[in-house]
């Protein structure tokens, strides 16, 4: 069915169906103030088509969460007994009455079974309809919104559903979602034509007791290579296998494309054994990998993530649907919800990479809570299936997504403009492993390392002991009112995040950001999975219950540095867990001894 052609008929029919009855009385489902920076422009064209997604409540998410924690807790008898795709889908399937009620409502608006598509578990219903029809169904008013940096979106600040559907619909998007998922890299440190790593200094090696052979090459204090990371994190000499069924992946969004020629230059320079090997590209939602437009972020993630884990088979997911959205073309609007497209896609796959790294995120407060919770719960489904998800913690300390502390605006989004620290999402999701940043050898926290406390998600019990110890040691009244002591605290871990030598447009290039840290940590997790799978053990899966239970073993505690933002010095890296570097950076050799 083509909605554009039947739209007029529907408009004419609408008055006939609008019989006043309790069933058709609409009640507000969600209403927000547009986040700072967005300005309302024209009304959206009524015939512009949007991809509407309707989330039905998952019947048994609490039980899924219980399974997740049991199979991820090393002291539990079910540790490692990950769930199958079918088992997960059964737990999150909507109740039949939710499906029936939502379908009846759609049918009343001329939308029938054949127009719908469903997520594998049936917990999402998707349909492409004109804005005019969405406005009718949702008692909403869509406008074109423009951000001060030029991005445009078609959104409404409020939507309603019939009274009787409130219990059967968790959320509908695109409606109130204004977030833009930026690549988390600090462009201020993006320097092209940096001397290749061969030009090292003659300075004596730096003594680092936890490193391989107790030493790290002096050049690593200025330039990070794959060899530096293997020395520093005690993994020199570990050789993984290509054919154990182990797999690593990184995600790409926002037209960030990973370049094959740059990869070969990188391998020739840093991982000679990997020359001529490559990664597999999987396109999600029409994502491209245009070799004429290499992306610094995508090159970084693939070069380091796959350089560390070579020869473990590797995948680059390129997800389409990125801004800028141009509202006058005749195709359906992109929804600017790339995580959902990606997570829908991977959840539909029977076999998944055991390790997946993502270096994108946005301020938590720009994401509607209902949406953040739903996406976070999707990450729990991946964890239950044995996947480790690493996310970068953000590049602006305790502040907002603006990497320049001078222009940071740490304002609450509730219309009151309160000053507060701004946590990042998905970094704040309790079901992912969030990676902060360090610099130099020996390591210290890097100033931009994102860290803090969620306003959406409560502190998960796996981190209570460490986080409460950190909070107890803070001087009374420290940053009172600026952060939420009861929220999920992050990062969980850290890794180097400055002076990375990548290849970009054929040139050696210096790059920085927690975007360096997430694929680095993931690369080593993939090596740990190699060791486990070769020993006949299941993959590590959701990592946090394990790593917090080790009470510091397997990690190098980072105890210096802080993460300023919002006009404050931010938090300090301290002994034990802290909201700058988490539990610290990994000691691969020691950790492997503990888990295999
Ligand atoms: C590493 O670099 C930092 C910053 O440039 C410097 O302060 C420190 O002395 C260097 N460390 C060593 C061991 O050279
Ligand atoms: C890579 O492939 C090229 C062209 O086939 C070949 O000449 C070269 O020896 C290969 N290098 C390695 C390290 O396998
Ligand atoms: C790839 O990028 C180039 C350079 O921007 C552009 O001319 C070309 O159309 C793009 N190709 C595709 C398939 O989008
Ligand atoms: C909050 O800031 C916005 C944008 O600068 C401004 O329009 C609004 O009036 C402010 N609200 C309050 C309560 O100060
Ligand atoms: C603090 O976090 C909790 C979740 O732990 C949340 O329920 C509460 O609303 C948050 N408070 C604020 C002021 O955001
Ligand atoms: C960080 O450490 C400095 C120096 O010891 C101290 O003055 C400051 O209060 C600490 N900040 C926090 C948030 O604990």
UniProtKB/TrEMBL annotation:
The active site is at 297 (charge relay system), 301 (charge relay system), 515 (charge relay system). Its cofactor is Ca(2+). The keyword Hydrolase applies. Residues 223-596 form the Peptidase S53 domain. It comes from the Eukaryota. Residues 1-18 form the signal peptide. One of its GO terms (molecular function) is serine-type endopeptidase activity. Transmembrane segments: none annotated. GO terms for biological process: proteolysis. Binds 1 Ca(2+) ion per subunit. Keywords: Calcium, Glycoprotein, Hydrolase, Metal-binding, Protease, Secreted, Serine protease, Signal, Virulence, Zymogen. Its main location: secreted. Its EC number is 3.4.14.10. Ca(2+) binds at residues 557-558, 576, 578. This is tripeptidyl-peptidase II. The keyword Signal applies. Secreted tripeptidyl-peptidase which degrades proteins at acidic pHs and is involved in virulence. It is found in: Secreted, Extracellular space. It is an enzyme of class 3 (hydrolase).
């Amino acid at each position: 069915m083509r909605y554009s052609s039947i739209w007029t008929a529907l408009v004419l029919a609408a008055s006939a169906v609008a019989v006043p009855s309790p069933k058709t009385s609409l009640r507000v489902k969600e209403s927000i103030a547009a986040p700072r920076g967005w300005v309302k422009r024209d009304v959206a064209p009524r015939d512009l088509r949007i991809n509407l997604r309707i989330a039905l409540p998952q019947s048994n998410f609490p039980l899924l969460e219980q399974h997740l924690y049991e199979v991820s807790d090393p002291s539990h008898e079910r540790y490692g007994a990950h769930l199958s795709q079918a088992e997960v889908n059964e737990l999150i399937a909507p109740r039949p009455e939710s499906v029936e009620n939502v379908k009846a409502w759609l049918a009343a608006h001329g939308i029938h079974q054949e127009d719908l598509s469903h997520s594998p578990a049936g917990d999402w219903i998707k349909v492409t309809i004109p804005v005019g029809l969405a406005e009718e169904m949702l008692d909403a008013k869509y406008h074109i919104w423009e951000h001060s940096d030029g991005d445009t979106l078609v959104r409404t600040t409020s939507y309603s559903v019939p009274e009787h559907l409130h219990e059967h619909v968790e959320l509908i998007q695109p409606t109130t979602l204004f977030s833009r998922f930026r690549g988390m890299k600090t462009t201020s440190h993006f320097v092209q034509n940096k001397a290749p790593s061969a030009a090292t200094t003659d300075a004596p090696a730096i003594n680092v007791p936890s490193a391989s052979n107790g030493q790290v090459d002096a050049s690593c204090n200025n330039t990070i290579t794959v060899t530096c990371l293997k020395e520093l994190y005690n993994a020199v000499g570990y050789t993984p296998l290509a054919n154990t069924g182990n797999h690593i992946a990184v995600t790409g969004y926002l037209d960030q494309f990973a370049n094959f020629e740059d990869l070969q230059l990188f391998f020739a320079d840093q991982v000679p054994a990997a020359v001529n090997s490559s990664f597999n590209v999987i396109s999600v939602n029409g994502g491209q990998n245009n070799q004429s437009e290499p992306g610094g972020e995508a090159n970084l993630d693939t070069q380091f993530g796959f350089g560390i884990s070579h020869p473990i088979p590797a995948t680059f997911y390129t997800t389409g649907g990125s801004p800028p959205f141009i509202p006058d073309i005749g195709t359906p609007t992109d929804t600017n919800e790339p995580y959902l497209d990606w997570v829908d896609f991977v959840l539909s796959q029977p076999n998944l990479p055991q390790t997946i790294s993502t270096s994108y995120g946005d301020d938590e407060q720009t994401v509607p809570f209902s949406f953040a919770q739903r996406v976070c719960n999707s990450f729990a489904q991946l964890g239950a299936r044995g996947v480790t998800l690493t996310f970068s913690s953000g590049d602006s300390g305790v502040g907002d997504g603006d990497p320049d502390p001078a222009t940071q605006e740490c304002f609450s989004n509730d219309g009151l403009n309160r000053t507060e620290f701004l946590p990042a999402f998905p970094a704040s999701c309790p079901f992912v492993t969030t990676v902060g940043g360090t610099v130099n050898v020996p390591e210290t926290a890097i100033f931009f390392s994102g860290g803090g406390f969620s306003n959406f998600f409560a502190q998960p019990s796996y981190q209570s002991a460490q986080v409460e110890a950190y909070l107890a040691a803070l001087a009374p009244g420290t940053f009172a009112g600026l952060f939420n002591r009861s929220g999920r605290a992050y990062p969980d871990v850290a890794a180097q995040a400055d002076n990375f030598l990548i290849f970009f447009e054929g040139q050696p290039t210096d790059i920085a950001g927690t975007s360096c840290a997430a694929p680095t940590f993931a690369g080593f997790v993939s090596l740990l999975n190699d060791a486990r799978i070769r020993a006949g053990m299941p993959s590590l899966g959701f990592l946090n219950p394990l790593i917090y239970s080790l009470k510091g073993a397997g990690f190098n505690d980072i105890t210096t540095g802080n993460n300023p933002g919002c006009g404050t010095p931010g938090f300090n890296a301290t002994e034990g867990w802290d909201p700058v570097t988490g539990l610290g950076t990994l000691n691969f050799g020691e950790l492997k001894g503990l888990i295999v």
